[in-house]
Amino acid sequence: MYTGVVPKLWNETIEAHRRAVRDAILETTWALVAEHGLRSVTMSQIAEKTGIGRATLYKYFPDIEEILLAWHERHVTGHLEYLAELRDQSGGAAERLEAVLEAYALISHHREYNGTELAAFLHRGEHVAWAQQQLIDMIRDLLTEAAGTGYVRNDIASEELASYCLHALTAASSLPSEAAVRRLVQVTLAGLHPRP
Fold this sequence. Notes:
By secondary structure, the chain is mainly alpha-helical. Helices cover about 70% and strands about 0% of the residues. The protein has nine helices and no strands. The mean pLDDT is about 90.
């Protein structure tokens, strides 16, 4: 007798398939936009390149903009998870602070779409403001911890210092090399040390 309950394995298989299709759509769209530009890509191209029908594509996303925003949100979330891993590693507050700041600067340096129309589009989403606040909170907490050890100055609020760090390290996007990025991180850290 059929009870109408779908086996758990079936549900997991269907969900895994949906995630795989969604991921394929995101990656294909990003590759097409990176190659041809934001305005040159169509939903038909995405469907064809992904290997799915247009009707299926529209079940997942209504338009290219929504696909790109979903791609960017996933991308930003991955960066935040990586920075949180560095924050949570063993070691002192100073080491973890330096690791997070350097990783953030390198992420900024390697961003593929700096200063473009695509960058302006991607950074208008609500997920960007949320991610920015998560990042400020993460760095603020590390700065507060490092100030408790005397490594970071305590005459300026940690939240203000966190904002200073992020703005300073955004300059990494225009630097010519990773060596230059690491020097920028060292200069930024030097500004955090207590006054002699």
